Amino acid sequence: MYGEKKVGEDLPPVQTRGVGEIDDLPKIDDVNQDAVFGEISEDGPNYRDVGWMGTVVLMMKTQIGLGVLGIPSALHTLGMVPGVIIICLIAAMTTWSGWMVGVFKLLHPQVYGIDDAGQIVGGRIGKEILYWGFNIYFTFLAASAMLGISIGFNSLSLHGACTAIFVAVAAIIGFSFGSIQTLGKVSWIAWAGVAGILTAVFSLTIAVGVQDRPAAAPQEGPFKSDFKVIGDPTFEEAISAVATIVFAFAGSPAFFSVISEMRNPRDYTKSLMIAQGAVALVYLIIGIVVYYYCGSYVASPALGSAGVTMKRVCYGLALPGLVASCMLFVHLPAKSIFMRFMRGTKHLTTNTPIHWMVWFGCTGGITIIGYLIGSGIPVFDGLISLIGALLASFMSFIPMGLMWLHDNYRRSKSERDWKWTFGVSWSIAMIVLGAFIMIGGTYGSVVGIINSEDRTAPWSCADNSNSS
């Protein structure tokens, strides 16, 4: 494929190096000559132009968006205490996964995407599984972002047009912004997106706290929130709620692309810890407060919980964040496909006609497929739960566990201390839990979509902003 280089050749030895010991790793800080992009010149895009703060916001934006809007509903299913515990557990698991991405990239500078890591760990089969898994996953994310934007348009306009038209408009927006070439140029839009979505969800949080009752509750007579300390869900409902929380945190498969475009990849861990801490804190605050005040009357997406007026205000504030999510979810899989075709050729870093034709072909293809999925599965809760179960659980936990085992399992007996034993146990647990959530959650999500009262027909004109 246009002279694609084989990933995994001439790798540094890793069997005798403990994870996290990075002082003697190959130097990859030179932005003019890169192990992935080759020579970066002024004649083309500078792919190594993301600073550590830009990295923080890109990590946050791959997570804070559609996922946070499903957190209160997940707490309603699980109950307050189990829900908070699971949020903290998933936060810890995904933080470890993100950390493992950074360590693996520093050990193997040739890696650009998670599919390259798959080739190192599992050969050609591993590469293809993770290549297609990543691209399908983020194409589904693009679909969910388009669906979220259409809900926002319906809320702001009071269903001023056919929903199918709003999804198409969202697709055009995603293509336009997603076609920006580099993450360095995209990061400023991500800043606006994070600010918008955070403003919206905190406005919602304040609104449900000061209002007498949520919008869906009976408007006459006394009202007391019926939130549950411990829920009583069926297996299908519980595992679908867990998958929704996984979806909210599952940005780590994209972190390979982010660290590959950093000016100084050794700042990655600092950026990761700031981003993950902020994301977990936001999810806990939003989830606990909104569910505490709304109880069983919480809406999904959550921005509809405070009534029509506040819903319009919140979606107006959140719209830049939804657009930024759609932009990233189009850009990242398109970049993955583009790299596979252009890597090792002059067209990768030079603005030739072939460069532009292939790039727009990639972003356009992802947009079209995402539009078809978003219009074909028009159930917000069910779609994000399905994505979280089938794709996010697999991509966010299993590969990272295998990556740790690949780099550390064969260490000599003298190095097999308690840290090594814990690392093996934790990695295996990540793989097993990822597989369990993937299988169980997919079943639960499919059942939920089939039984959903909010389900509309594909390409329907019906208003999709009134689910609760």
From TrEMBL:
Keyword terms of this UniProt record: Membrane, Transmembrane, Transmembrane helix
InterPro entries associated with the record: AA_transpt_TM (IPR013057)
Membrane topology per record: Multi-pass membrane protein
Keyword Membrane among record annotations: yes
Record keyword Transmembrane helix present: yes
A Pfam cross-reference name: Aa_trans
Domain called Amino acid transporter transmembrane: residue spans: 51-446
Molecular function in Gene Ontology: L-amino acid transmembrane transporter activity
Superkingdom, taxonomy of origin: Eukaryota
GO cellular component, one term: membrane
Location(s) in or outside the cell: Membrane
Transmembrane segments: 50-71, 83-108, 129-151, 157-177, 189-210, 238-259, 271-293, 313-334, 354-377, 383-405, 426-450
Gene3D superfamilies: Amino acid/polyamine transporter I
Family that this chain belongs to: Belongs to the amino acid/polyamine transporter 2 family.
Protein name: Amino acid transporter transmembrane domain-containing protein
Organism annotation: Zasmidium cellare ATCC 36951
